[in-house]
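Data availability (excerpt). The following record was deposited with the supplementary files.
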Amino acid sequence: MKYIKFNTFDGKTNMQIDSDLLDEAIRTKSQEPVFRLYGWSPMCVSLGRNQKEFPLPDGIDCVRRLTGGRALLHDNEVTYSYVAPAKEGESVIESYKKISGILIDFFKTLGIDLELGGGKCIGGTKFDYCMLLSTGADVCYQGKKLIGSAQCRKNGYILQHGSILFGYDKEFLENLFHEEVKGITCVKEIMPEMTKEKFIEQFEKTLKISQ
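Predicted structure:
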């Protein structure tokens, strides 16, 4: 597996890099998966591929994803993306489980047991904020959503990316999306002493060991 080291970009650049990685894999017919970690600056809302735009306060960037789903605020988080050929006969759910397994295995090295989410809604289908919806693509800690992911497929290849919540401002999210934020958790709630820098360092170390 090829690993692209953590870096921070604005929303447009982040989504362009993911798109370019997918297109490059298709062009070269690569069989080697690519895993990337990244951050966002300034904070940015990403909209799902088919989601309608809605008003945002000044100072918050906005970009549209290749993948579906609802809006996400990318701020205090670590984002991942994964590009690989789709295996013949492998369903979307099966591929979600396989890719999410990379994340679950990493958290095990930190002594944290995560599980895949089910199909139960935390909120309801009318909500704009993606983290309030639970699907089989989610990774949860003790029943609370920690990682939300989305996937698209193109010419036999998969792009999956997702948000690993490191910390969040509940009041800010509720004012932004006009909904009560509940049923989610973050790395800082699970591991209060963990810094984002150490988290990224550990993740990168684990990825390199697993190659």
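Summary of structural features: The radius of gyration is 16 Å.
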